[in-house]
Amino acid sequence: MRFAILGPLEVHTEDGTPVRVRERKVRTLLADLLAHEGQVVPADRLIDDLWGDTPPTDAHAALQTKIWHLRRALEAAEPGARDLVVSQAPGYALRAVHLDATRFRALLGEGRLDEALALWRGPALADHADEPFAAAAITHLEELRLTALEDQAEQRLAQGHPVELAALVAQHPLRERLRALHMRALYLAGRQSEALDAFTQARTLLADELGLDPGPELTALHEAILRQDPALQPPRSDLPAALTDLVGRDDAVREVRAALERSRLVTLTGPGGVGKTRLAIEAARAHPNAHLVELADTDDPAQAVAQALRLPDTTDLTTALHARHPTLLVLDNCEHLIEATADLGATLLRRVPALRILATSREPLAVPGEHPWPVPPLDPAAAAELLLTRAPSLTPGDAAALVPHLDGIPLAIELAATRARALGADALAERLQHHLLTAEQRGTPPRQRTLRAVIDWSWDLLTEPERVVLRRFAVHADGCALDAAEHTCAEPHIDVADILARLVDRSLLSPGPRHRLLQSVKAYGLERLREAGELGAVRERHTAYYTALAEQADPHLRGPGQRQWLATLDAESANLRAALDHAPADHAHRLVDALAWYWFLRGRLTEARRHLARALRQGPNARTAAWQAAFTLLSGEPADAGAALALFHDDPAGLARAQWSLAFAQRGIGDDTVHLTDAALAAYRDLGDAWGTAAALSTRAAKALQSGDLLSLHRDAQAALDAFRAVGDRWGQSRAADLLATHAEITGDYARATALRTEGLRLAEELGLASEISWRLSSLGRIALLTGDHDRSRELHTRAGRLAAEQANKPAEEFAQTGLALTARRQGHLDEAETHLRAWLDWMRRLDARPGSALVLAELGFVAEQRGDHAGALDLHLQGLAAARASGDPRAVALALEGLAGAHSLAGRHDLAARLLATAAATRRAVGAPLPAAERGDVDRIEARVRQARGTADAAPLTLEEISGVEEHRSPPVTRSTGRRRP
């Protein structure tokens, strides 16, 4: 849905269809919400804006009706749009993602004045200008517009374009900056007398209206016009005009211009096609006297400079440059004349102090005082923008698929755009995976007309040892460090380190310590590697090196070296994937076993499952099968743990790790995992594995939590934390600290719980463990909820859910979404709470996740009870009680009993409700976890209802037989908590 207030109020769907909001009051309400641009507008303020001094009798109900009409109008135009209008204390907000005023500000911030001003269709909120609520928004937006118009005029004058400002000056006659721009525009148009008259008019008006004289800037401009100061003239340049927009280089242009202010010689370096020439020309446009010197087709740089300055020969170069003070020479394509160009540049800079040089070359000139500036490829967003600009027939999805193959190299993108028109997106993507681009671009030098020609140009300048190293280096997926290059590129009598440095100087390789090839150069190198018959042998070297690296890293991921080795494996992720793609069966199983814990720590569950499945297709392996089952469970899908464990023979260490990983992965899911945890703990102790012992203790503590054994929870979590600290594992410390925090939360010690979870979050963030960060954020969100900070709870759970979804971590995402449901219900947003909860119930049941199911059913039951639906509440809480009993958690049973008390009290069975409450309280006391004050909201509400009916909420607990009787009185199932029964 798109909203517009820069002119009369307009609303359109995404496809441009107008949306009609016919009722005037509803349209005014919409305008009011849009004027506040997503901020919450208090209900009392909206009432005042809509009805003024004569509000209706029940004003809040009337406002709710108008809100309903607005939502209905939006929903009728576009399904789901009703959710844009949100209720949030103390009023309402319209979350308009596409609002022209917001886009206007963003474009101004990016300096895109023409695009920003094109959004205006007339005065802001033109059809609501008389409404008091609109005054502040209109004033603010119109001031922004006027400033933007002044900025645009100043920009165009500086570029030498004519500007007409008379009408704008007539509307704002006292605005001195606007007056100054008008005077300058008149002067530059050859209308000096009119410019001077404009100053006289301004001086008279300021004196008559404000009793002031013109400011110093306006006065100085008047004096400059009188003496016809040359500084008033815009810059003059003979640089070639740009045929297309320069995309994605705004920051680069600013940085190069800043470098030229600091240094008299700046050299833009980079590979062919990266856009050095275009960037240099654009950066030079700010200089008043810039000249382009093209060196590609000459063998005499001095003669090329003379031609650019329109001199007959080179004898008067120094004199001419002195006379043209100040001058910027853009020396383009210096690489094939590097020494001669360097000598000429050094001489001219020494003899002409006002001269500056901006050079482009694949390697620096190596002149004293030179400032080399490597030109980077375009980032993915800018690359996609350039591709879509040059090939409008492509969709954003097409561009996203093509951009990864193009290296961010503007030449490659331009060539791809020309091919896209002939081949289409799919055929082009297929070709890019296997071939270099060969489409020609007219109007460019022959050496730049195809990407292959650009690289051939560089290849031909290399020595044979340089070619050997370059083609072998291409086997690396995303570059590598020196030791990996030496292993894969080695050859007798070749100094790999020295040759890498020379390739860096030639802009074929990025600078170290980690060297990279552009994808285009990599593809070229692989072709040369195949031609040389070396591809298979070099890939074997590559696989062997990275298998050894992964196996070296694996034990360090469970100790004090975690951070360093995670960073190492992060840097080598692409190479590790490439090694897996080409590894034979024995290496594949070794690699996935060594990388499994890394994938877990980084939350790469989908990647892990893909590579594990691929390894298993090459042949059976017990460790690989166990990891595959564990990652499947961690992803929130069922797996056969028993089948994986049955494959182990004569591998006690592998079996222990498999038992633990499977127990850890299926905690809270399916059958009891205590036997797996205990078996792993015993095996780890026999093996003397300190990390494994700590991990098993942590998992046993988590199981104790599920069964309501708070003493064992605290004991094992503390022992795990101590053990993880001893081995230096931060992941384990974060996990164990969270379990201790849960114990503190259950017992009402929120300060200690917050401290422990904050420390756990810090440890997870230090290591960059996205999934663990999600869990910790949700846990902190729970404490915020319990302490009444609902906004903080919502923020934390939202962040956690987003992280979990990015990692495809279903359990963590469910935990976060359940937190949002808990928060919504406690804020009275019952529809929102139910939506969150219903989304996960089937998933939990499919996994047989009993603890989670018990909580979700209890929460849905409370939603039904708060709506007054006693039958729906009774059914949901009975289901929740069954799930709680199956989970073995007494606290979950108590929660279900409290919910049943609420349902029965609604139905008028207050004596039974009182006894259910008493039973729940006794159940909690029995496990040392009485309900803290912060969690008594539901119980207090139900007790109040019972007390009002009976005079007291006190009662005797139910016996086991009586509880069984309550369970047998199940109401017919309901489809939703609205009370509608299934047929």
UniProtKB/TrEMBL annotation:
In Swiss-Prot or TrEMBL terms, this protein is called: Putative ATPase/DNA-binding SARP family transcriptional activator
Q: Which InterPro entries match?
A: BTAD, OmpR/PhoB-type_DNA-bd, P-loop_NTPase, Sig_transdc_resp-reg_C-effctor, TPR-like_helical_dom_sf, WH-like_DNA-bd_sf
* Recorded superkingdom: Bacteria
Q: Which family does it belong to?
A: Belongs to the AfsR/DnrI/RedD regulatory family.
Q: Which PROSITE patterns match?
A: OMPR_PHOB
Q: Which Pfam families match?
A: BTAD, Trans_reg_C
- Indicate the residues that the entry says bind DNA: 1-96
Report if keyword DNA-binding is assigned: yes
What the entry lists under Gene3D superfamilies is as follows:
P-loop containing nucleotide triphosphate hydrolases, Tetratricopeptide repeat domain, Winged helix-like DNA-binding domain superfamily/Winged helix DNA-binding domain
Give the organism, scientific name: Nonomuraea dietziae
